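Title: Request for sanity check on (wild Malaysian banana) hypothetical protein prediction

Description:
We are preparing a figure and want to confirm that the structure record we downloaded matches what your pipeline produces today. Could someone re-run it with the sequence below and paste the raw structure tokens into this thread? We only need the token string, no images.
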Amino acid sequence: MAILSPRSLALSLPRLSPRSSPPLRKPSVSLTDLSAPSLPRRLPLAVRRAASANPSPLAAADASTWEVLGGVSVLAASTGEPVLFKDLWDQNEGVAVVALLRQFGCICCWELASVLKDSMPRFDSAGIKLIAVGVGTPDRARILAERLPFPLDCLYADPDRKAYEVLGLYYGLGRTFFNPASAKVFSRWDSIKKAGKNYTIAATPDDKASVLQQGGMLVFRGKQLLYARKDEGTGDHAPLDEIFDICCRVPVA
């Protein structure tokens, strides 16, 4: 059994220097509008519906999000085979929650995956498809899936961080280690300890610069983006009650 302490959060991520961070390509589409000072970082469905009815930069960003993300391929954790995002759920009326984990060796991501797994009955009963994507290779994804455990058919690997880059999710030393939003992990310490019972750092990607990547959460109905949230720092996950609130307002075909 892994013994966790506050210090182990930092130890679960290799020490890095700013020089080890590779340059990133400019994102094809950014979710910056969703965290701009003039707009709340988490937008209710009613606001998004209004944006769709009255074209605006936000509505345009929603449309372009699907255009760039749909063509991104990830690797199925179960087989290692590539699959396009656009093939992961019904593109007409299907509702999907896309959880972008940081990386498979992050203890906070094990906690998020554990919470998502425990919520699977609610997702299934509401007809919602859960898709979890993490940074790393399929073999590292399988370590998480086997030891947590987590359903393999919902888990995908993005070793090159393609989805993260096109969405413009946060990346860097400051976001990973020093962002004030990360302090909220201490309020979930019991949940983290439970998720880390069988934790192993062996799930960390070989590309150690990948540990600087932050995640996020998206909700789609078909190709329509209903909700998008960028994690501000390590462990700053979207509240699931908020996700279910968005999903339950959407009639499922």
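Thanks, this matches our download. DSSP finds ten helices and seven strands in the chain.
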